[in-house]
Amino acid sequence: MVLGANDGIISTASLLLGVAAADSTRSAILTAGMAGLVAGAISMALGEYVSVSSQRDSERSDIQKETWELEHQAEHELEELVGIYQAKGLNADLARQVAVQLTAHDALGTHLRDELGISTDGLAKPFQAAWSSALAFSVGAGVPLVAAAVASTSTRIAAIIAVAVLSLLGLGYTGARLGGAAPARPVTRVVVGGLVAMGVTMLVGKLFGAAIS
Question: What is the rounded CA–CA span in Å between residue 137 and residue 10?
Fold first, then answer.
C-alpha cells in the first residue's frame, strides 16, 4: 500500500504539473487530475487482480499436482522430503525420522511448505490485492489533487511540488521503517525519483503547450 500511494502521488502530481506548465485553466488541471486518479486506481486494481489471480492459479495447480503425487508416488515424495531436510543440515537418519513424522501428521501441508514454499493459509487473494491497491493509489493521488484545488493560480505549481515532496518524504520513511532499513537511502531514492518524474513531465507539458498554442 505504501508503494501504491507513492505511485499515486508521483503520477498524479506529474500529470497536474504537466498540464499546469502548459498554462491550462484551473478547471482543466483539476479535470485532468481527477481523470488521472480514476484511471490510475482502476489500472492498479486490474493489474493487481490479473497478477495475483495468475499467482493463485499457479498455487492451486501446484497443490493439485502435489496431492496427486502423494496419492500415487508416496514413497518418492517421502524421499524428496528426506533430501530436503538433509540439505538443511540434518543427518540421514534424523532427516528420515522428521520426514516420516511430518508426513504422518500432515503430508500435503508439509510438502507444500517445505518443498514448494506454499502455505494454504496464505494463498494469494486477488480481490484483496485489487481493492487495496486502488485505495492506496487514490489516497496518494488525492494529496496533490487537493493542493491543486486550494492553491492560487500563482502558487499552484509550487504547492503541488511541495505537498508531493513532503508526502514522498513521509511515505519513503514509513516504507523504510516497515522494511527494517535505514531511512536515508530509500527516502532519497523516492524523492529524487519523484522530482525527476515531475520535472520531465513539466518540461513536456511546457513544450507541448507552446507547440499547440
Answer: 10
Encode pLDDT of 130-159 as tens digits.
899 999 999 999 999 999 999 888 888 999
Neighbours of 59 (CB within 10 A): 18
CA angle 104, 107, 113 (to 5 degrees): 130
First-to-last C-alpha distance (Å) of the chain: 40
Which residues does 39 contact at the CB level (< 8 Å), separation at least 6? none
Inter-residue long-range contacts of 119-124, CB under 8 Å, 24+ positions, other chains counted: 120/63, 123/56, 123/59, 123/60, 124/52, 124/53, 124/55, 124/56, 124/59
Residues 6+ apart with CB under 8 A from 156: 20, 26, 29, 147, 148
Give CA separation, 52 vs 48, 77, 132, 213, in Å.
6, 28, 12, 45
pLDDT at 208: 80
List the Cα angle 198/207/189 in 5-degree steps: 20
- Quote the radius of gyration of the chain (alpha carbons, Å): 25
Question: Tens digits of per-residue pLDDT, 3-50?
Answer: 888 889 999 999 999 888 887 788 888 999 999 999 999 999 999 899
